[in-house]
Amino acid sequence: MPSSPARRSKRRSSSTQRKRGSSSEGLANNKSENSNRQEQPSNKKLKKDAKKEDASVDAKPQNLLTLFNKEAPIRSNTEMSVSNGKLQQNNQRDASSRSSFGNTQKSASKLVIRPLASAPAVSKDFPEQVWTNYLRPAVRAIQNATKVSFSYEELYRKVEDICLLKLGSLIFEKLQEEVEQHVVKQINSLQGYAHDAETFLYGVNKVWEDHCNQMKLVRSIFLFLDRSFVLHNAPVRSIWDMGLKVFRKYLQQNTEVERKTIQSVIALITAERNGENIPQDLVKEMIRMFLALEIYGESFEKAFLDASNEYYKNEGNVLLQQYDIYTYLKHVENRLSEEVNRVVLYLDRSTKAPLIQLVENCLLESHTVEILEKGFDSMMDENRQEDLARLYRLLARVHQLDQLKKYLGAYTKNTGARIIHDPEKDNELVQLILDMKDKVDSIVSNCFDKNEAFQYTVKESFESFVNMRQNKPAELIAKYIDQILRTGNKGYTEEELEGTLDKVLQFFRFIHGKDVFEAFYKKDLAKRLLLGKSASLDLEKSMISKLKAECGAGFTSKLEGMFKDIDLSQDIMKAFYESVEWKQCGNEIDLSVVVLTSSYWPQNAHEEVKLSKDLLKLQNAFSRFYLNKYAGRKLTWNHSNSMCTIRANFPKGQKTISLSLYQTLVLLLFNDADALNLKEIQEGVGLGMKELKRTLQSLACGKIRVLKKEPMSREVENEDTFYFNKDFQDKRYRLKINQIQVKETPEENQQTTERVVQDRQYQIDAAIVRIMKTRKSLTHSQLMSELYEQLKFPYQPADLKKRIESLIDREYLERDADTPQLYRYLA
Amino acid sequence: MVLVKLEKAKLACHWTWNTKDETCGICQMPFDGCCPDCKIPGDDCPIVWGPCEHSFHLHCILKWLNSRQHCPLCRREWHFN
């Protein structure tokens, strides 16, 4: 039924026309129209059409219409024209219907539309009235949370009307005034409100929430104001913003309330920091209020940070005294995560950076030294990796790793120095240092993020403390390696031993006096090779190749030479067994000889000894054979490193015993005599008294006693008499009697050290001559500093002075005649 | 029956050059050491004798023999013994 809407609208339009014409308030939408609209809420297009028709039909209230157009841009002119076209049609239809109607009543009168006699005007006090009668009561009702006696729609329309009359500013001002009055009242009402922070904040929150709700409602009613007046007047804020502005203004004006609000929020947060439960939602609401009012940054955040600063400064000072460092650090870490949570839960994100920085600063940065001073050493001592990792994490945050590094270096150095300077710990020194290195390394890699700077510091510290004591550490390392290679695989696999050697080598790397190490290593290696004590030749060779990789071929060439000698000797022996000399001897004794190149091997003190007849014969036979083979050489027998195997016929069983040549010679004497005193033995063997006593001690006082001594004691005295031990018995068939001499004697040690010192003198001489040859003349201090760069071992300046003196004596150098500080090189 | 019978002996000895002089007449380095061109003494830097019983480092005398064929100490004709 296409005609029905048109007809209906026509009817309605005429009614509106009539009303507009007649009503003094002109535009007021009365209830009937309201209901009319409500009748057809869905058919909006229809409504629109109707309105348009409305407009075209009553062209009379021109002024209103144009106002309409201006105020509501939706209804553009083009639309108007189109709708005019439609309207025309409608008019035609109307006309036809009218005409069909008119067909029944032949005398049809013509409808004439005339402009109103006078343009409808709005009474001057119209907005005033609307405000006083409708809007103000409504606003007040909202503010007082009582029932609004008008429908919101109606109120909205009123506002719209006023806006269309371009009187928006008026009503906006009035509204603002009203809001201000209310807000002032509300905020002031808070003034005397509860003293308790939480209750007070609930009060504030209530006021704020109410304010927001009210403003929301007010805004809805005054929406048209927002959309017309506010939109077109740039500096004016929207109603909502106006509400916030007003609220802020009066909150700030009432400093007491503002201060108390902020203080209460801070008090709550502080309470939470102290471990109390607080209504976080409330705090969150308050923070949101601050943010909405834009007073978060200037008023709240500043005060909050100040309070936090105070709080944490105090806490740092107190807890550091109260807690041990581990607990303190744990606490700090908790605090940091708590504060981050706090930001997430209710603070603004912008606060995170300054807040965290503040906590770090108060709890860590300003106490870094104290924390490290109090806790670091014990953490290291107790190997508390978790705490150390925490310490590293925390100090990394505050960029204090340099401090940590310093303490690590100092700790390493001090602990190491303590170990190294304790002569009682010499025996286990290397093991202790290796353990310590392991520990520190594992801490650096597990807790300190494998930080390279830290690794370097550790290395540096080791180097410095290891060299605090001259020579001894190098010697002890050599001994330690000797122990490994000698006793060998006591429950260890080759890989494990290799691993240990690698570790020792790390330690060795720190040592400056590598020559001392070489000397002792060489001596020990010689013993291992000659006395057959080496656990594994493979292990020996791998150690040599490690040293070669570490110190270069020059360092190990002599050591390699020693292995070569051993190999070469085997070949020589093979040839010897084929020779006439060997066959002449009769093969009663199985002989093997190692011929050593003297410059490779450490020189032993020469001991005179009388060999038994058989042995002498063999030895001479070999000498003849060897010197025939290698002309131009001579042989020096080194009996202290000779080993023998004997068969001893004890009445209680036969034993095979391996022992040193000296021990053998002593025992052989007892073939011809039952009892011998010390003097007789010495005549028979020809050994030095000291060596002889040691030998006898090993035979008569050790674990395996093949000799009996009269009187019994642990030491060998000059008056002692010795017997062959006829009661000797042992479960084993093969026995081994260790020489006591195998242990290093103080003399040997002294010799090795002296040899090293001697070598160093040559090196110093060479370095001085080398430098002076290129520089021609140098002052003493210049020469010293150049020497410092060249010499690779630790030395005393006094030693250098001695060498310089010696070179001056030998006319390599001279002192300048005028300046005694100056040396000249003499070509 | 003998109480103690020696079954096996493992002896050690050093060899050195059997020279009259301590040092090489050419380089003045000890025979225990090596010539200035070598680093390691021993078989790698051998000593040689002439008919005059003078001895030198092999490397030293070879250099000398490049110019003359007599012993640098006594001027007797040189050939290796």
From TrEMBL, chain A:
Gene Ontology CC entries for this record: cullin-RING ubiquitin ligase complex; nucleus
Residues covered by the Cullin family profile domain: 472-700
Protein name listed in UniProt: Cullin-4
Gene Ontology molecular function terms on file: ubiquitin protein ligase binding
KW Metal-binding (keyword) present: no
Pathway info: Protein modification; protein ubiquitination
SUPFAM superfamilies referenced in this protein's UniProt entry, alphabetically: Cullin homology domain (SSF75632), Cullin repeat-like (SSF74788), Winged helix' DNA-binding domain (SSF46785)
Polar residues biased stretches: 25-43, 75-106
Region Disordered: start-end pairs: 1-106
One GO BP annotation of this record: ubiquitin-dependent protein catabolic process
Biased composition (Basic residues): 7-21
Keywords of this entry: Isopeptide bond, Ubl conjugation, Ubl conjugation pathway
InterPro entries in alphabetical order: Cullin (IPR045093), Cullin-like_AB (IPR059120), Cullin_CS (IPR016157), Cullin_homology (IPR016158), Cullin_homology_sf (IPR036317), Cullin_N (IPR001373), Cullin_neddylation_domain (IPR019559), Cullin_repeat-like_dom_sf (IPR016159)
Entry's family note: Belongs to the cullin family.
From TrEMBL, chain B:
Annotated keywords: Cell cycle, Cell division, Metal-binding, Mitosis, Ubl conjugation pathway, Zinc, Zinc-finger
CDD domains membership: RING-H2_APC11 (cd16456)
Domain spans labelled RING-type: 35-75
GO terms, molecular function: cullin family protein binding; ubiquitin protein ligase activity; zinc ion binding
GO biological process: anaphase-promoting complex-dependent catabolic process; cell division
Entries under PROSITE patterns matching the protein: ZF_RING_2
Keyword Magnesium among UniProt keywords: no
One GO CC term, this protein: anaphase-promoting complex
Protein name: Anaphase-promoting complex subunit 11
Organism from which the protein derives: Galdieria yellowstonensis
